[in-house]
Specification:
The complex is a heterodimer of chains A (214) and B (307). Chain A is mostly helical. Helix content of chain A is 77%, strand content 0%. Chain A contains eight helices and no strands. The longest helix of chain A has 29 residues, at 54-82. The radius of gyration of chain A is 17 Å and the shape is globular. Chain B has eleven helices and no strands. In chain B, helix 1 (3-32) runs parallel beside helix 10, helix 2 (42-52) runs antiparallel to helix 9 (215-241) and helix 7 (170-187) runs antiparallel to helix 9 (215-241). The longest helix of chain B has 32 residues, at 124-155. The chains are: A mainly alpha (214), B mainly alpha (307). At the A-B interface, helix 1 and helix 4 of A face helix 7 and helix 11 of B.
């Protein structure tokens, strides 16, 4: 198969997501998220050059500013104020989850024929988008802290964004912008929510939140 | 260029540069710790001093102890001749085509000899160091094999000279390059895995193995270690340089200069990392090395997808 430059950017984002599976420091995870989303913004810019559309370039800029800068910085400040440094993982330890993450990338690669849209240019990106979605789910399952669940959610969102960007004939820019700001609102609300959890329970460990009453 | 001139540069580079690199690493490390440090040429002085001293050999040691550093040095020299750690363009044409698996197992052979000698003297430290070294090399080997195999897939050849003469996909080069840097830190007993300057017996890995050596034997071991440093860091530097797409199109001498400079820069980076990092707990070393293994595995996937 011939991988285009956009496919390689997508693969880079997926590799970063896998790397985030094995990292225990929340700050490093957020750096991974930043780089991963920056690569997606780069894909927007590359596509805009391919298709001569200014809209995609603007979208890339907005994605970079909101999803790659604002959200990780906000989550980083949240973590700092709650005094969180490490998420040692629940159920599965981070190293094992790194290996499984590696497996999801392979799975994404083998699912390319069934998920890529035949008439679109960048076939490989479809598989990488699926890998991002799986890896995001993996982060949500294997992590202990509520803030990591948000990181996992953002990874899934990145995967869906990548799929819609490379495998469809683009949604109107207003819809895309709407989604970006929706995600920003979602993260802000989740941040406030995590704050409240931290205040009432004095921790944000989701494995300890089995019953509604303590 | 003249064949004799190329051979001359190649051999001078091979004989002098490794010790020079070790000197630079030590100097930068000293500067990081706010010391003035020994001069950059100190490894040369050390070597000439050690060669003039008599060797003390423990009464319980056998011929393995005596021969291990000599054979180890020979193996390291052969490997250093075969591997294009300073770029491929100035390689003289008498250097044979080398399968990358041969190089990896020659390096493993050198390690095996050191471990054998460490067990031979029967001291407790030697045995402990050897067992740890065996564990580390077992963890690093998949990274090396899969990583360089990913590059070989891209180049369509298992010959190291062909692999490093061909352009590589930037993503694969970055992934394999960083995996090789991590593998080099572990193989060369560098900071997050092992502290090369420690004399605390509980944490030593490499130092524990060469504790019994003195004089000529120690000199040979030190020189072999310098050669291995060059081989590992050189391979990593070459791979990372290939992430720059224009690299293979540059003129010969320019490329050679960049290779040497990047090797020095990587050595300095290792020294700086040594000043910043904390040594890992022995139990979390596998977690650290797992990152390198995963990086080369993913590089192999991407390289395979690109054919």
């Amino acid at each position: 198969m011939n991988l285009s430059q956009i496919d390689l950017f997508a693969a880079g984002a997926a590799v970063l997501a896998v790397w985030m599976c094995g990292v225990t420091r929340v700050k490093t995870q957020l750096r991974g998220l930043l780089l991963q989303t920056t690569l997606l913004a780069g894909i927007c810019v590359l596509l805009s050059a391919d298709e001569h559309s200014v809209h995609l370039a603007i979208l890339g800029l907005v994605v970079f500013l909101v999803k790659a800068l604002a959200i990780p910085i906000f989550l980083d400040r949240c973590a700092k104020r709650m005094g969180i440094e490490r998420d040692s993982g629940a159920n599965i330890n981070p190293t094992l989850s790194l290996m499984i993450g590696c497996g999801t990338l392979f799975l994404g690669y083998f699912l390319i024929p069934s998920f890529a849209v035949p008439e679109m240019m960048n076939q490989g990106a479809a598989g990488m988008a699926l890998a991002l979605i799986f890896t995001g789910m993996l982060i949500i399952i294997t992590r202990r802290l509520a803030i990591s669940q948000v990181i996992g959610f953002l990874t899934i969102e990145n995967g869906i964004f990548l799929y819609s960007l490379t495998q469809t004939r683009h949604m109107p820019i207003l819809v895309e912008m709407g989604i970006v700001f929706e995600v920003l609102m979602g993260v802000l609300i989740a941040g406030v929510f995590i704050f409240r959890i931290n205040r009432s329970f004095e921790h944000i460990d989701v494995t300890d939140m089995r019953g509604l009453r303590h | 260029m003249n064949a004799w001139l190329i051979t001359l540069i190649y051999l001078i580079n091979l004989l002098i540069f490794p010790l020079f690199l070790v000197g630079i690493i030590r100097k930068v490390k000293a500067l990081m710790q706010n010391r003035k440090g020994a001069p950059v040429l100190q490894p040369f002085y050390d070597l000439s001093k050690l060669l003039r001293k008599t060797e003390t050999i423990s009464g319980s040691a056998s011929w393995v102890f005596v021969w291990s550093p000599r054979v180890g040095l020979a193996v390291a020299l052969i490997t250093a001749v075969l591997v294009p750690w300073a770029g491929t363009l100035l390689t003289p044409n008498w250097v044979p085509a080398t399968n990358f698996l041969l190089v990896i197992y020659l390096l493993a052979l050198g390690k095996f000899l050191t471990m054998l000698a460490a067990i031979d003297t029967g001291s407790a430290f030697g045995g402990l160091g050897a067992s740890r070294e065996a564990t580390i090399s077992m963890l690093v080997e998949p990274t090396l094999v899969i990583g360089i195999a990913a590059l070989a897939l891209g180049a369509g050849s298992t010959n190291l000279l062909t692999i490093y003469a061909a352009p590589m996909s930037p993503l694969v080069a970055i992934l394999v390059g960083s995996a090789l840097v991590v593998a080099a830190l572990a193989e060369l007993s560098r900071m997050p895995v092992d502290d090369p300057t420690t004399h605390l017996e509980l944490t030593m890995v490499h130092e524990a193995m060469i504790l019994e050596y003195s004089g000529r034997g120690l000199a040979m071991i030190e020189y072999a270690v310098a050669l291995r440093t060059c081989i590992f860091l050189g391979l990593a530097a070459q791979t990372l340089l290939h992430a720059w797409p224009a690299y293979t199109a540059l003129p010969v001498t320019f490329r050679y200069g960049i290779s040497i400079l990047s090797l020095i820069a990587l050595g300095k980076a290792v020294a700086v990392a040594e000043g910043i990092f904390v040594k890992l707990k022995w139990r979390s070393v596998p977690n650290f090395l797992a990152f390198a293994a995963v990086m080369s595995l993913l590089a192999a996937l991407i390289a395979a997808a690109q054919i």
